[in-house]
Amino acid sequence: MSERSVGIVGTNFHTIEGEFLLEGGQTLKDIRVAYETYGNLNKDKSNAILVCHALTGDAHAAGRHSSDDRKPGWWEDVIGPGKALDTDRYFVICSNVLGGCMGTTGPASLNPDTGNPYGITFPVITIGDMVNVQKELIDYLGIKILFAVVGGSMGGMQTLQWAVAHPDIVRKAVVIASTAVSSPQQIAFNEVGRNAIVSDPDWNEGDYYSGKSPVHGLATARMIAHITYLSDDSMHDKFGRKLQQGENYKFDMSHDFQVESYLKYQGETFTERFDANSYLYVTKAVDYFDLSKNGSLAEGMKDIKAKMLLISITSDWLYPPYQSKKVVEALLFNDHDVSYREIESSYGHDAFLLESGHINYVVHNFLTHTSVGDVMTEEVATIREGVSIETAAKVMFEEGLTHLPVVNEKGCLAGIVTSWDISKAVALKSVDLDDIMTKEVLVAMPDEPIIAGAKRMERHSISALPVVDEKKRLVGIIDSEDINRLIG
Ligand SMILES: CC(=O)SCCNC(=O)CCNC(=O)[C@H](O)C(C)(C)COP(=O)(O)OP(=O)(O)OC[C@H]1O[C@@H](n2cnc3c(N)ncnc32)[C@H](O)[C@@H]1OP(=O)(O)O
Ligand SMILES: N[C@@H](CCO)C(=O)O
């Protein structure tokens, strides 16, 4: 196993107890979420990155479940020590989507009310529902801010949805080979796939879990979809008109060309790991995805606060660069902080899984150009000027703090009290907070590079910096231990 891998990992499960309301108005009971995590969550819980998977991905994004596993998780090249999603710095989370078939509740799961698989009685779900389920997981993990949300393809849709629906949680968002609105062509390809599934007699109106499954329909759906993940150039490069066996045409109906054999293999192996009903539901969720509001993408995106990075792939004809550029335009219309990169690649849509060199470079740069505001803790316990030392000590004890900012009636920083100041007060029998607090406080600004804040802390041997805006209002705090971990 590569030294740069997260190594052997396991899948965890969390149940969201009770009724869960879906965007379509229906409910699901006791949703189970399968998830994996890599790296460690820091003390402030400010280094979490949520990775959202694509259509047929799963929670197993990196590492191996056992040393015998033939292949690692699907984004092994991007997640791990020293990689863009650096597990020495970040706590990476990936969960299987709602409606999936890799551990999270989906149509193949048992309906608790009937004891039978949901099948086609499973409610139609949306990208918004997938994100709402992830939000429950993040809450369960005690995470209040996401340093970043990252995803390709359908994972990019979830990432955009996160940025729109939870602007105060998401600090950075990386959207790769994706769109804010599913196009008619995308819907059309999905519909052909669904049609292949429901036309298979073994589909049996979705009720096939005790008999034969619709493997022919599902394999055909995958074959069609797989073509859309490649490009004309990559197919020329990969297969050309090469034959699978021998040098002469057989002039029969066998899989004479390599590309035929390849597609057959891709279709068949897919049926070993994916549920046909899940394919119906997850593609539907993709089709319904549309972040525009009143016909305007700019309006739909106006609440976003995260710094955004959009990446597209030159040869991706399924999610063409124009779709990412539309998102960029909508964000620029709102004066948002957005970067855009187009990766030159002939691999087509699946380049987001294959061009790991490019992806690592671009995503690493985006994530490491971090400002104070990207990592600061916004919920800061404070005390008002003029309170007693005892009150300050009590707050620090109850909140487990070593630094406590003192603010005036306008919320402006007036000083800071440390646990050392409290010890001094006890030793000197002081009662007046004003006597012991530091009034000339070193601070950081949200827009300054994190490295500048870290250097200031190092130079002055201090372990926390209050963050203030231009009016000196306290807006957050940063802690040296967490910062050092993030800047590596
Ligand atoms: C986030 C997510 O999207 S998770 C889901 C990602 N995974 C998938 O989508 C699985 C489907 N696969 C793919 O999409 C792509 O294969 C990728 C992007 C993952 C990997 O691409 P590549 O590394 O170029 O692999 P490639 O497409 O050549 O497929 C290789 C497989 O095809 C087989 N193959 C290659 N040529 C032929 C052929 N002529 N006949 C039969 N089989 C063939 C190989 O033996 C290999 O089999 P294996 O997967 O069992 O090892
Ligand atoms: N290979 C990807 C393509 C869809 O983005 C998947 O199967 O999920």
UniProtKB/TrEMBL annotation:
Pathway: Amino-acid biosynthesis; L-methionine biosynthesis via de novo pathway; O-acetyl-L-homoserine from L-homoserine: step 1/1
Subcellular localization(s) per the UniProt record: Cytoplasm
InterPro entries assigned: AB_hydrolase_1, AB_hydrolase_fold, CBS_dom, CBS_dom_sf, HAT_MetX-like
One Gene Ontology term, aspect cellular component: cytoplasm
Active site: residue positions: 153, 316, 349
Protein's UniProt keywords contain Transferase: yes
Residues in CBS domain copies: 376-433, 437-488
Stored HAMAP family: MetX_acyltransf
Pfam families: Abhydrolase_1, CBS
UniProt: substrate binding residues: 222, 350
Protein name per its UniProtKB record: Homoserine O-acetyltransferase
GO process annotations (BP): homoserine metabolic process; methionine biosynthetic process
Catalytic activity: L-homoserine + acetyl-CoA = O-acetyl-L-homoserine + CoA
Main location: cytoplasm
CDD domains the record matches: CBS_pair_arch_MET2_assoc (cd04605)
Quaternary organization: Homodimer.
Organism superkingdom: Archaea
Function: Transfers an acetyl group from acetyl-CoA to L-homoserine, forming acetyl-L-homoserine.
Similarity comment: family membership: Belongs to the AB hydrolase superfamily. MetX family.
Enzyme class of the recorded protein, top EC level: transferase
